[in-house]
Amino acid sequence: MSSILIFDSGIGGVSILQHIKQLPHPLDIHYVADYAAYPYGEKEENWLIKRIDKLITNLEHNIKPDVIIIACNTASTLALPTLRHQLSIPIIGVIPAIKTASRLSENKKIGLLATPGTISRIYMDNLIKEFASDCTVTRVGSTELVDIAEKKLAGSHIDPHKLQKIIQPFIDNQCDQVVLGCTHFPLLMQDLLALNTGLHFVDSGSAIAKRTEHILTEHASTAHCIDSTFYSTQTLGRSLTENLLEIGFKQFKEI
Ligand code: DGL
Q1: Ligand 1 atom with least separation from CA of 143
Q2: CATH fold label, 2-94+206-254
Q3: What is the reported pLDDT for 220?
Q4: DSSP H helices in the chain
Q5: What pLDDT digit, counting tens, does each position of 82-96 carry?
Q6: Distance of CA 110 from the midpoint of ligand 1 (Å)
Q7: Which residues of the chain have pLDDT under 50?
Q8: Active site residues
């Protein structure tokens, strides 16, 4: 059975996990949420690189996964080079699907909805220059939307007016494709579509699953059980734990 480590500041990586679970491989899933440092989107860059580096290096040592997925755009657009330098196992990063959005856009006006950290990274400037130089890109950074996704998973009601206000700049600027550049946001896909704005939302989930499958096929396995453990750097609330059990997590550990 292949062992896979999925990492995010919170619950966002579950949007990636949903795609990973569709893979035909038997998997031992270790999901790690760094709640003690959540939200990542407003943290200082060097501090974040050091924290992620320390955390992932320790986890790799203890869990010994076959693959690591940094299921967080805010972390991937910052810490991937350092992590890949430190560790020799495959590390998959999640980065905003700018290339896909630019390909799909008919009017060449696209949106990037991500954390304040991600939208202002030099990495993003380069990604846009490389893959969407023919597009006008509207960037919106929102920690409020990250919080809304967390609260949804903890059982709270979502106020559609708040969502509408956050995505309004994309409508004002006539974007036709909007990149969900934070793994928390696909968890709100139904709520965003229910606003009937006509916007199309693009995320990286299926591309990450494809990349993971490619790597996992190199680890042939015969077992057929799926196990999943949720690790957190902070105690989880009761309703979030109940929802995580429903999603399929079997064990919980505080690290
Ligand atoms: N889920 C994370 C991302 O993809 C970040 C959320 C946060 O700000 O902690 O960017």
Answers
A1: 8
A2: Rossmann fold (3.40.50)
A3: 53
A4: 14-20, 45-63, 73-86, 98-104, 116-119, 122-131, 143-153, 160-172, 189-193, 205-216, 238-247
A5: 999 999 999 999 999
A6: 20
A7: 222-224
A8: 72, 182
Q: What is the pLDDT of residue 151?
A: 97
Counting from 1 in the atom list of ligand 1, the atom nearest the Cα of 183 is 4
User: Looking at the DSSP assignment, which residues form a beta bridge with residue 77?
Assistant: none
Measure 42 CA to ligand 1 centroid, in angstroms.
9
Ligand 1 atom nearest the C-alpha of 146 is: 6
Please, are residues 101 and 204 in contact by the beta-carbon 8 Å criterion? no
C-beta of 76 in contact with ligand 1 (< 6 A): no
The domain ranges of the chain are 2-94+206-254, 98-203
| Class of domain 98-203 (CATH, top level) | alpha beta
65 lines ligand 1 (CB under 6 A): no
CA distances from 57 to 6, 84, 172, 192 (A): 13, 10, 44, 36
Distance between CA atoms of residues 160 and 154, nearest Å: 17
| Global pTM exceeds 0.85 | yes
pLDDT at 23: 87
Q: Is 13 in the pocket of ligand 1 (CB under 6 A)?
A: no
Same fold, 2-94+206-254 and 98-203: yes
Instruction: Record the tokens describing residue 168, joined without a space.
Output: 């309004």
